[in-house]
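Here is one chain, start to finish.
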Amino acid sequence: MADRSAPSCHLRLEWVYGYRGHQCRNNLYYTAAKEIVYFVAGVGVVYSPREHRQKFYLGHQDDIISLALHPERVLVATGQVGKEPYICVWDSYTVQTVSVLKDVHTHGIACLAFDLDGQRLVSVGLDSKNTVCVWDWRKGKLLSMAPGHTDRIFDISWDLYQPNKLVSCGVKHIKFWSLCGNSLTPKRGVFGKTGDLQTILCLACARDEVTYSGALNGDIYVWKGINLVRTIQGAHAAGIFSMNACEEGFATGGRDGCVRLWDLNFKPITVIDLRETDQGYKGLSVRSVCWRGDHILVGTQDSEIFEIVVHERNKPFLIMQGHCEGELWALAVHPTKPLAMTGSDDRSVRIWSLIDHALIARCNMEEPIRCAAVSTDGIHLALGMKDGSFTVLRVRDMTEVVHIKDRKEAIHELKYSPDGNFLAVGSNDSSVDIYGVVQRYKKVGECIGSLSFITHMDWSSDSKYLQTNDGNGKRLFYRMPSGKEVTNKEELKGIQWASWTCVSGVEVNGIWPKYSDINDINSVDANFIGQVMVTADDYGIVKLFRYPCLRKGAKFKKYLGHSAHVTNVRWSHDHQWVVSIGGADHSVFQWKFVPDRKLKDSLHIAPQESLVDSNSDESDSDQSDVPELDSEIEQETQITYRRQVYKEDLPQLKEQCKEKRKSAASKRRERAPGNSIRLHFVHGYRGYDCRSNLFYTQTGEIVYHVAAVGVVYNRQQNTQRFYLGHDDDILCLAIHPLKDYVATGQVGRDSSIHIWDTETIKPLSVLKGYHQYGVCAVDFSADGKRLASVGIDDNHTIVLWDWKKGEKLSAVRGSKDKIFVVKINPYIPDKLITVGIKHMKFWRRAGGGLIGRKGCIGALGRTDTMMCAVYGWTEEMAFSGTSTGDVCIWRDVFLIKTVKAHDGPVFSMHALEKGFVTGGKDGVVALWDDTFERCLKTYAIKRAALAPGSKGLLLEDNPSIRAISLGHGHILVGTKNGEILEVDKSGPITLLVQGHMEGEVWGLATHPHLPICATVSDDKTLRIWDLSPSHCMLAVRKLKKGGRCCCFSPDGKALAVGLNDGSFLIVNADTLEDLVSFQHRKDVISEIRFSPGAGKYLAVASCDNFVDIYNVMSSKRVGICKGASSYITHMDWDVRGKLLQVNTGAKEQLFFEAPRGKKQTIPTLEVEKIGWASWTSVLGSCCEGIWPIIGEVTDVTASCLTSDSKVLATGDDFGFVKLFRYPAKGKFGKFKRYVAHSTHVTNVRWTYDDSLLVTVGGADTSLMLWTYEMEGHRDSRQCDSEESDLDSEEDGGYDSDVTRENEINYTIKALSTNIRPMFGIKPHLQQKEPTLDERQGVVRPSVSRALPQPEKLQTNNVGKKKRPIEDLILELVFGYRGKDCRNNVHYLNDGADVIYHTASIGILYNVATGSQSFYQEHNDDILCLTVNQHPKFTNIVATGQETQQICQLQLLLFMCGMQ
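Its structure:
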């Protein structure tokens, strides 16, 4: 079998030729170390002119388009384009990320700027509103955000002389911003008469509120405050793209190719015209300038960087060149020298020296160039053009040898034959022409087998064959030079190819990801000697594969840097380098090839860390060489936690049922029952898909979770206390280092994490808003201040929180596959690890992001699936448990060794002060020393070791261990089977808690006269539980099939159980041994019932729509009830044992006579008179009220009536247990509602004396006991349930004013309707009354010399001369907003002033003088006002307005009497 692993050699980026000058500005600076920082494609480049060396920042995954330098000139901020673009702040010395700012902008980040002290960063997005954001970049925290402008913003800058002021400019506008609190408020610049309103391209701030800006016409506009005060005309001959302020003054650069220097008062110092210098050319356009001391950096539109020394300004030094705008496709390497040739749509061909990292020759052609080839002797360079011609140049002096045009469409590929005699030319019109080199490129052959354009070609080593690829992915072979197609497979077998650049063929099958388009990969080049090949694709990725690469989905190493498609890639002649070129980013990347043997040395160099896995072994089909997943893990990864409907959707669903609610509200409905229930005990522990979720608290109690309940269990008293703040399955639990607080994460559409106190059972913090669908792992930091969490969304998002403040610190996409555990480094809370399916990652926090590095496995093996992890005794040691039973030991990110610990997966691991404890699928707990050298002791979990005080029975020996914790001299163990055990260090094991295993629990029956109940589940067990205070499982029996129902006989001696295969058993209720079994049906038995009294008959209902009636004594079937149109859901006997009531899945209520099974029709009124032995039905007039308003979405699954027939308990698909008064007549009865189960409650039963209600949850596998409390019995302790009648409005009792105010809608009036109804026609549109002459058709010449009156309002004050109105000042406001506001009038200054509001104005009224002063910063109705009472903040007022973003309540604080 071919090796599908990734190659062990790798590539390292050594040089990037080019600079991004097009569509960017102000992106070139000197750092503090006098290095030059700029960007090209997706790479930040730091270039040292002294050493001629480049360093690269590779944290972006798309085009970088903006850059800002920190005032200390070491840190750099760069912003990229993309669907979810982000900003990276990075260090120009180390090129490592310092902070990541994300989750706010869309489309891209157009401009960036640091403030004076470098604490804050402002960014402008490319979205439709050009959003402006201010960040505390070290924390990665958004401080403020506002829509920037309706059109593009080109530049933004902080005013360095006024705090909290910014200026932005762009298409036909300039705006002056002030940052106050978290609100950014803009004022538009007033152009007035001083200058034309036009596009402003760049700006710089100076002292005294002066701002200089560069305009599109080449003028410089000077602003004072927000007004344009003067213009400096003709500063440049065309648009000014860049302006840079420094200590000496200002530098500007424009489209006219000039750089001008100005002093601090913007008086001209000098001008440098780059077009006139040696290196200049017509059309040179400056995009970026940076003036530092006597050096000036200039970046141009055509990707050049010049450095000018001021006293030799006529001799600019060219330090970087690249191709200009237009796609770059042509690449060829010299056959004997370290040279690369490139040609582009900018019509230039360039030769680069791979040793000197410099451009050594350039020649401009007539046409855009699409491909290139160098002859075997290195003398000729052939270029294929876009117009179908090709040109051959001499490499030596770039003079033309020949120019030939035989085709009309673009030439895509050229190749010289190895013997140098022929040139093959492949074009867009599907043919390959062969030319004789020696015959001055005379055409000697033609290959015409292809049906699509030619993409790639290779010659055989003997120059006798040519293979081609075309746009359809077809691979064809031709005999040379005639061009005859070869189809005989035998003839093709022995061909040796001189080069391999084709993308289709057996040898390169593996480069294609599964399900990819045939044109995704643009270029391939094989290195036969090193047995590797390199590919370039449309996603900007360069990949390294083994060669040959025969099987699809092979593994590879991938390298990022190019932003858009990589169009071509080639090995240098000696295979030392790989050269790749980018299409849209028109940059040339040179990569150093590092062969295997050098890898050992390079281990000391930390792998390049980045936000995306650059340089990773990641491949599209990781499954290739990884052992099969363990069945248990496989099963767990298949579980989906998505719900059709979440509890969060309830309010919305109720909204949709408004009509129903109104009709319900109009009728008087029965009150909710006075009695209530309280959760008393829960049997169960969530072990089958969770891990490490079981701990000792400070006080020695045990905390764990099941269903939607956090449980604190006291093992001495065998009692439980409950945290009931969750409303859906809890999936993870972590304990605070002080062991007093616990964090639990749940399933939900917007799932929440609750941090709560195990003593008081009160929530301390609830974290929401960042995880979709659920939270599967949480962990506290060692200082207890931070919390890390992992979601179960598709990207398994990792979030780091400051949980007390409820603030998200950082977030990142974790992995496509499931993550099982997250752990925060106990020594450095900014570091963490995550483990999961083929995933071991080390993260460190950088601002609002986290930067991940995969664990480096080196030669020790491959990435296994990791199930658990802990940190060790130093900050760099970490340990992880694999799915194959090994423990991996890591130092920093490197795997240093593995130790075999268990047979099968290691599911849990716990670090002790001097060692570790592990637990695995093999049911063994192992204690290790602190280096994992020696296993000190093992404990096998076996029935034989169970101590006498156990609260149940072990179902099997060696159950799979999912959680381990130590404390109080014991080891606490949680198993997959839902058991919690305490292992004494000396060996005996006590079972403390137990529940059903994975699988739904439906069957539930309570004993007719003892406090016990029976349950049966899909986990194929039948269990008997003691409901008295000893709370334990009394007996268990394994069944051959799962079951869905059970029932005790009236004397309690027998127990009937219905199974999922259509059979049922009757067993002895004490020993659980078979008495009798039957099978008459094939489908699930859904309900089973003994008749009352002597229990003579047994009714057995099945999902194939029948009820069979058996005579228990004679063990014979005596009747069949037919006539149901769907499966049977519920069944009840009447007191006499003669009548059977049946409910079906089609919501039918049917009646059958027993024992024959004859169907009866009984009128509703009669049904109510019948005495029923039990009531578990959900249909009929007596329980019409139990169906909720949203009955279509959720079903009521179960009900049970107390023996005094007063209270009906129900369970439904939402996990609610409800109590109704019985009979619940009329729709939508009122109820009390309790949440503890997570999803559907499948069954509810009262015990024989009604003292307890027993409920079972379907998927949550738990059995819950609730104590029944009579009305008036109220503990002082808070009631755990949510007591909920239906919503308050139905109780009426609103005052009319309150009702009116409640119904006011504050949607923006301008958006919804006109404020006043308008009637009539505007005056200037009115039809004028025709005059007599007009009626008679007489046309008279106009005699007035005055201009004709405009057809608008006729004015009567024509003669009066008025002063133009300059400004309006608000003098007096009548009115006060009292109609829908309250508490909005206050005294200030000891009663001297009164503050209130009306419309959008805050009014300060002086009582003595009767004068008013106004706060006018709001722009819509003020709705509330409050005064700060603290003596430190006298006269501070907050007002809140209604605004267009209804959600964003703008609170403006203002000082009264000041404004």
